[in-house]
Amino acid sequence: MILAIESSCDETSVALVCDGRVLSNRVSSQIRLHAEYGGVVPELATREHLRNLIPVTRAALDHAGARVEDLTAIAATRGPGLPAALLAGFTTASALACSLGLPLFGIHHHEAHLYSPWIWGDPPEAHFSEFEPHVSLIVSGGHTLLVHVQGELQHSVLGGTLDDAAGECFDKVAKLLQLPYPGGPVLDRLAGEGDPTVYRFPRPMLTDPGWEFSFSGLKTSVRYFLEKHPELASDPRALRNLCAGVQAAIVEVLGAKAVRAAGQLGVKCVTASGGVTCNRGLRADLERRCAKRGLRLRLADRMLCTDNAAMVGVLAERKFKAGVQPDDLDAPTRPGWALGEP
What residues contact 250, with CB distance under 8 A and at least 6 apart? Predict the structure, then answer.
């Protein structure tokens, strides 16, 4: 049984995982706290982690009907993420491992997202018997990555974001449109009621032969458009069409590149994970594109798209069973840890 902790940004999460089954997955969200500021305030996020880690850990153990004496290993997100937020969770995990004499596994946040599409059910359970080589799209507020996963614990990054990530673009455009925080889900809801053909925005690097992403130009294009047409943001119908147009541009780039990569690499499966994978437009676009190309699609469960400890625990258990060397108890956190770096 592995106890896992996730604290890379603004959600404190603790999970218990045993034989691929998620026995509990407790998440304490800070959305209301940061809404006043229109974004995550690192100092406040860290304070809340320190306040919540012990009660959330106790709640996770109670829900699983487990005691600390039942644990086999401890895991925690080691990076990337907000430096002080990571430190709060990883130090707690280190202290637990030290006091219980258990191994500690520092998990890469994005690598955990890679495996979240293979966790589903009620209660959630890992289905690695169905695992196959695939192209994985990881889309969140801070990162956009395209990864070739050759096998379990074997992957290589094809490309990432050169500037603004897709989720960051969603949030910044939502702010330009004066939508409430968090803006991405609100923009998604309004886009579902709009016409994406009314306002067409650029598709950055869509036809580029590489696998990198860039969304800062799209955000700038929307800003200039609104400066010329400020009245549209206050018109309900125009606002819905603007949201639909922006979402269509982002989604087309993400979906087209993921499916094209699968074709070029000769794999028959595409997965998607990360917070932006909750976006209904992206899920529908990937489903349509994969069906057209005869590709299998696995989308992370919505409850596991955002930051959570369940995916951290599942990956840690796979590493533990594969004989991966645990981390030193005094290992430092790695806020800028790139996927693929040792």
Answer: 166, 169, 170, 215, 218, 282
Q: How far apart are the first and last CA of the chain?
A: 26
CATH number of the domain located at residue range(s) 2-124+304-321 in this protein: 3.30.420.40
User: How many C-beta atoms surround the C-beta of residue 238 within 10 A?
Assistant: 16
104-138 pLDDT, tens digit per residue, is: 999 999 999 999 999 999 999 999 999 999 999 99
pTM confidence score: 0.95
Residues of the chain with CATH 3.30.420.40: 2-124+304-321, 132-300
Rg, Å, the chain Cα set: 20
Specify the CATH architecture of the domain 132-300.
2-Layer Sandwich (3.30)
d(CA 98, CA 264): 47
In this prediction, residue 342 carries a pLDDT of: 87
Residue 38 confidence (pLDDT) above 90: no
- What is the reported pLDDT for 19? 97
